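Notebook, student rotation project (T.W.).
Task set for the rotation: take a protein with a known small-molecule partner, predict the structure of the complex, and write up what can be learned from the model alone. Partner molecule chosen: adenosine-5'-diphosphate. Sequence and SMILES entered below by T.W., checked by me.
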Amino acid sequence: MEPIIKVKEVHKSFKNVQAVKGISLNVHAGQFTALLGPNGAGKTTLVEMIEGIQKPDQGEIFIMGKSWKGHADELHRLIGLSLQETHFIDKLTVRETLRLFAAFYDLGRKRVAEIIDLVGLAEKRDAYAVNLSGGQRQRLALGIALLNNPKILLLDEPTTGLDPNARREIWNILLQLKEHARTSLILTTHYMEEAEHLCDYVIIMHQGRILKEGTLEQLLNGDGAEKIIEFTLEKPNQAADLLGSRVPFPIQWEPDLGRGTLLVSHFETQIPSFFDFLKQKNVRLKNLECRRKTLDDVFTSMTGRRLDE
Amino acid sequence: MNKNTLLPRQLIHLIAALFKDIFRQPAVLFWGIVFPILMSLGLGVAFTQKPDVFHTVAVIKNEEGRQAQATPRMDAFFAAQTAPCESSADQTPCFKLSLQEEQLGRTTFTFLKTDRAQAMVLLKRGRVSILLEEKEEVLKYQFDPLNPDSQLTYLKLVRLLNRGKPDSVDSIGHNDIQPLTVTGTRYIDFLVPGLMSMGIMMSCMWGLSYGMIEKRSKKLLRRMVATPMKKSYFLMALMIVRIAMNFIESGLLVLFAYLVFHIRIQGEILALIVFFVAGNIAFGGIAVFISARTANTEIGNGLINVVVMPMMVLSGVFFSYHNFPDWSIPYIQKLPLSLLADGIRSIFIEGAGFSQIAMPTLLLFAMGIGFFAAGLKIFKWH
Ligand SMILES: Nc1ncnc2c1ncn2[C@@H]1O[C@H](COP(=O)(O)OP(=O)(O)O)[C@@H](O)[C@H]1O
Ligand SMILES: [Mg+2]
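Predicted structure of the complex:
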């Protein structure tokens, strides 16, 4: 099937920064895709090029087979989007703001009322945009993005800066959409939970390039080891005993944190033998945690940095 | 739905939205409407005429419907003490006299020999501050007694014309002062059209330019153009809202001036309205052009000042620009604010109609459309 969004070898530089250094990607109809990466990875620049707001220096972008040149009006009608930051007209109410944008798409009051319900702003419909909380503003932005029943939805950090509750409200709106509409979504975020929770396909970006991409399964189980043991020692200077080539466990030691990590595939069999190994070396644990691997671990293993650094 | 019904809907919603945004901000209303009125009150009452070392006097050489009147006393004075000079605009005979005085510095009198009708026009335009009429060798002075500049001119003139005469003190008594308090000749009549023009300029430049730059810096424009909104509608809506606001603002100013100072509009009201719209289009276009690219309000601030300041000084809002050097007058008169202020004045106090202001109206429209088109071309939405 022909991808609904096709990005080919796109580059974009600003005065002294190469923000996007040759990115290609495809998004298929109905797919929820996350662009996951730390601040400055080039996510905004990339989505804004897809949105037709910025022009690539090099490379091509096709949306449903059409490029922005000459098809702007048509594509604007297919796309819904929210920018990383938008202010609205200060002294316009939620409802008036939606009605203004609805008029741009030739939509009427009925659609505005639906959207107000959908994004849960019924109580705030007569509040001025300038008086909304962060989460309410993001929901208004999302509501505007959804007005025209877009085939393609592009959301730039829709939950950044929100508290967990507000974030979950936005997630629920999007999950609802995933269930009921055949919308394709590209969402940028630096929260791995957001990518894991919402998206079928994750593209990890770093310094203007794609680091790794795939389904959650592929990213987390790629090397067969999808679980993690993290531990600290009573006597951190004993760590040297646990490292080296003749040790049966590939332990990573982070001296700054005084913490060891071990990737495993099965807790049931591997934890007992790990304990035997510690006993044999006469090393006492201070703390031990077992958890599944996350996208953050994938990012850290490839860059040595964390996503939210 | 077809395109034709869709397009005006966008425009109507944009206009409504922008109006609401303005009317819900009381501070905006205050600075836009109350402030100009307070200013006209302050200036109108206080009459802060700048102390000018140039005095221009109109010497009336004939009476309406009568033969040219002889002005022997003045002619003798001109022959004896003054040098003929080139009159800037027309062929009016003109005489100049400069006096150097220890205490007062240099004072230059310019006398223009002209007829009464022309003299009144000059007076209304602020070009002359006093009219001088000679009847049977008696001099009659006509001026607005509330205008300190006219008063000063009068006093200096009396002293000058009676200089060296033994009976000088006495002879002042023979001079007839005829107070001119006729509507249309007072300073306030000159001032109100100036304030109106200035209001239009300021409101367009600050309200429109600054508004656009701010919307750009808040990424509001960026969001709006990512929809099927027609871009020119956004700018048109801004201009329409601004023109409507200016209409209210100027209307209140004129109403106020009418109630307090009994100002009348002597020319054609319809011509005034058309001219007013032309002025708004001109400054609206300039505002769009000025704010076409920058997203930085500081830069916007500077750009607006670069446009506004020179015109505030040169265009004769508060005082006639005829005190500037003669060579500069033709250029000053072409400035949009001068065109606007002169035009509004001519309708208000000289009774002008469509025929007299056709040219400046066209010029203002042309300026506005030219700048708007150029601005739209280079406009940065992001
Ligand atoms: N308009 C711009 N001018 C100059 N540099 C920019 C501009 N936009 C983005 N950048 C730079 O490009 C890089 C990528 O930015 P961005 O796409 O915003 O990243 P992200 O959205 O992933 O945080 C950053 O180093 C940023 O400073
Ligand atoms: Mg970003």
